Amino acid sequence: METRSKLLQTKRLTMRQWRDADREPFAAMNADPAVMRYFPAALDRNESDALVDRLASSIDRNGWGFWAVELSDSAKFIGFVGLNVPSVQFPFSPCTEIGWRLARAAWGHGYATEAGVAALSFGLEELQLEKIVSFTAVTNAPSIAVMRRLKMREMGRFDHPSLNPDSELRRHTLFEIKSTATSEDVSNR
After folding, report:
1. The pLDDT of residue 3
2. pLDDT value at position 1?
3. Do 96 and 135 form a contact (C-beta atoms < 8 A)?
4. Which of 10, 26, 32, 95 has the smallest set of CB atoms within 10 Å of its CB?
5. What distance in Å separates the CA atoms of residue 153 and residue 178, rounded to the nearest whole number?
6. How far is residue 43's CA from residue 180's CA, in Å, rounded to a whole number?
7. What is the pLDDT of residues 119-155, one digit of tens each?
8. 3-state DSSP assignment of residue 127
9. pLDDT above 70 covers what percent of the chain?
10. Which pairing describes strands 131-137 and 171-178: parallel, antiparallel, or unpaired?
11. CA distance readout (Å), 109 to 114, 126, 141, 166, 187
């Protein structure tokens, strides 16, 4: 079966299919308590590798997904950004989400927003999705700031059904952007 994986380029970033060389730096990211602060737990190497396998398979199957992201000038892997259809059933399902996870060294450079613009443009223009959502724990101010920079609109709050009722991460906020956003709106983020 031929892979029809979409490669996205921005001024500074390449969003591409996963490679075996990504596994080690991704595992280091997933073990970093700061990177995983807004997730239920850090991942060990086996869990991280299994996630790479799932993400790569999704891209093979669909041509898009949570792409590995590298710096274009050095080919250094910095994390992932992209689109995903969640397997969890949410009150707003079915949906396609935009999400990201970057290594700590990549924070504060605008990479999540830059790659997010490319992913949103791809989803709204090429996939012709009616809307794209994003969600995170209400305490995750850095990701909420990215959602706002992407000009996504806050839609409300909900309890994440996969998290324990006593988890401090259970309460989530939902953002969305609709296809009525023009390509100019998306590219001017």
Report:
1. 41
2. 28
3. no
4. 32
5. 9
6. 38
7. 999 999 999 999 999 999 999 999 999 999 999 999 9
8. coil
9. 93
10. antiparallel
11. 9, 27, 16, 34, 18
Q: Which residues of 107-132 are buried (b: 16+ CB within 10 A; e: fewer)?
A: eeeebbbbbbbbbbbbbbeeeebebb
Following CA atoms 145, 146, 152, 158 in sequence, which dihedral angle do they give, to the nearest 10 degrees? -70
Distance CA 66, CA 126 (A): 16
pLDDT at 104: 97
Peptide bond into 94 cis (omega under 30): yes
Q: What is the pLDDT of residue 167?
A: 93
What secondary structure letter does DSSP report for 155?
E
- Ramachandran region, residue 11 (left: φ > 0; alpha: ψ -120 to 50; beta: rest): alpha
Helical (H) or strand (E) element with 50: helix 45-62
Residue type for position 102: L
39: tokens are 């997730």
